[in-house]
Design goal:
The protein has about 160 residues and is α+β, with helices and mostly antiparallel strands. Helices cover about 35% and strands about 20% of the residues.
């Protein structure tokens, strides 16, 4: 049964490419997500459709934490909120447990928040599937390729043939 969850942290072009490379991810909608106050402004993010029977939520969260600056409270956090946007109370519990579990793998404290999903606005069509449309672009080579190489090293069995 397909589920949805949102992830925000860095550039949504990067986040989109990361999750599009995973085998049980059926959809990745790139855009902006708003939550509840004080996180009710839109921030770059993706909505991921996935099959938890094939790829557990824990793995998606670990991928997310490893592929953006999840321990940095940098000044651009308004535009790039580090978050897991949940759709139900079960996802809230699972995400909170996953953050505790994965914190041990990071020297600094994770700044990623578990927030309720409230609203989504899609990116302009010209930015959708950014990496797939132009992996040779300098931005893709500089920022997305290293994330995909990390996935290849840490999660080889989770990658789709595209990744």
């Amino acid at each position: 049964m397909l589920k949805k969850i949102g992830f925000g942290g860095g550039c949504h072009w990067c986040t989109e490419a990361v999750f599009q490379s995973l085998r049980s991810v059926s959809t990745v909608d790139q855009g902006f997500i708003a939550s509840t106050a004080p996180n009710d402004s839109f921030s770059e993010a993706v909505v991921v459709g996935f099959d938890p029977e094939i790829l557990p939520l824990d793995v998606l969260i670990e991928v997310h934490l490893l592929t953006h600056a999840s321990t940095s409270a940098h000044k651009m956090r308004g535009k790039y909120r580090s978050a897991i946007y949940t759709y139900d109370s079960e996802q809230v519990k699972m995400a909170a447990k996953a953050l505790i579990k994965f914190q041990t793998g990071f020297e600094k404290k994770l700044v990623t928040n578990v927030l309720p999903f409230v609203e989504f606005k899609a990116s302009d069509e010209r930015f959708q599937n950014y990496y797939a449309k132009g992996p040779e672009k300098p931005f893709c080579q500089a920022y997305i390729d290293p994330k995909l190489k990390l996935l290849l090293q840490k999660f080889p069995s989770e990658l789709s043939t595209w990744g």
